[in-house]
Amino acid sequence: MRAAVLHEIGQDKLEVLDDVEALGFGPGKVRIRVRATGLCHSDVSAMNGVLPQPAPFIPGHEGAGEVLDVGDGVSGLAPGDRVLLSWLPACGTCPACKRGQTQLCLAGFMNAGTPNFKRPGGDVFGFAGTGTFTEEVVVDAGCAVPIPDDVPFDIAALIGCGVTTGLGAAINTADVRAGSSVAVIGCGGVGISAIQGARLKGAAQIVAVDPVASRREAALGFGATEAVPPDGLADAKQRITAGEGFDYVFEVVGKSATARTAYETTRRGGTLCVVGAGAMDDHLQLNMFELFFDEKRILPSMYGGGDVLQSYERAIALWRAGRIDLENLITHRVRLTEINEALDQMRTGTALRTCIEI
């Protein structure tokens, strides 16, 4: 089968090969024909080594498709079922799951260290235990989440990561209050979803911050009340909050420099929500006095900060009701053979989300 493979960490291009085989099918497993997958910035971060991932590997973790076969012991799934792929399935038995923090379950991460593909030259890993830039993938049954017939594969794919992450950051983690002021730094697919979440929660002012003009323009269509480049954030803070700072600031870039800016843009007693996934050697510096004196809440948000399955259902319900716009998040579409075009669109910021149709 065909798949897009990164041979070594640090390479900026993927090679589409037709000699890849999905491994591991058996009890408790599901084989899925991938129909659509989104390109998330985390895929690029894994390619360049910001996020740890063994190589060679197949990127992609935001996908949807059809069940081809189910292994022994799998219930609730059958060939032909339409599913989205969850890269962080909950085991249901670990301490995090028992506390109701299923987004912190580590069971899914264990899959990332086990090869789930092979080529004639050796084993190949799937990013985040999945690897959706391929025609077929074998995953644990918990990774295959059934979706209703009226949800298209491309929409389901987005819900599998970016939409759930951004919406959840605003709704679950930050719990934005109605009438509040919000700034969102980084307006790709996740940042736009955070903007939509803040709008749903009733934020009065939502400032979108991004260096790319097309993304700023797009943000206005998703609920931002204004959009500024990074060098315009200080002026927006002064105009909108009289210099005090925003009630909520979302950092959706994953860099210490933007997190520091976000902290300084948050009012005393306000909330900084860290959504971007950054590198292990990129440290955010805060002095102990400001940490105490400013009483700013610093809330990291992992995969939307809530029960993943409930978050999927909520996103589908909101989309059906017309309360969130997911169709227009997809600004570009490519085939698997054009995957490197999608990477260019991500790196230049010309795309909010590129859908790879497989």
Question: Can you give a write-up of this model?
Answer:
This protein has about 350 residues and is of the alpha/beta class. The protein has twelve helices and 19 strands. Strands 4, 6, 7, 10, 11, 18 and 19 form a seven-stranded mixed beta sheet that branches. The longest helix has 13 residues, at about 310-320. The relative contact order is 0.16. The mean pLDDT is about 95.
- Biggest β-sheet strands, sense, barrel: 7 strands, mixed
Mean of residue pLDDT values: 96
Spatial extent as radius of gyration: 20 Å
Beta-strand percent range: 25-35%
Extract low-pLDDT stretches: none
Descriptive keywords:
single chain; 358 residues; alpha/beta; seven-stranded mixed sheet; six-stranded parallel sheet; 12 helices; globular
Briefly say what this structure is.
The chain contains twelve helices and 19 strands. The protein has helices spanning 41-47, 95-98, 107-110, 153-159, 162-173, 189-200, 213-221, 233-241, 256-265, 288-294, 308-320, 339-348; strands at residues 3-5, 15-17, 21-22, 29-38, 57-58, 62-70, 82-85, 117-119, 122-126, 136-140, 144-146, 181-185, 205-209, 226-228, 246-251, 266-274, 297-300, 330-335, 353-357.
SSE arrangement:
Elements: E1 3-5, E2 15-17, E3 21-22, E4 29-38, H1 41-47, E5 57-58, E6 62-70, E7 82-85, H2 95-98, H3 107-110, E8 117-119, E9 122-126, E10 136-140, E11 144-146, H4 153-159, H5 162-173, E12 181-185, H6 189-200, E13 205-209, H7 213-221, E14 226-228, H8 233-241, E15 246-251, H9 256-265, E16 266-274, H10 288-294, E17 297-300, H11 308-320, E18 330-335, H12 339-348, E19 353-357
Parallel strand pairs: 5-9, 12-13, 12-15, 13-14, 15-16, 16-17, 18-19
Antiparallel strand pairs: 1-2, 3-8, 4-6, 4-10, 4-19, 6-7, 7-11, 8-9
Helix pairs in contact: 5-6, 5-11
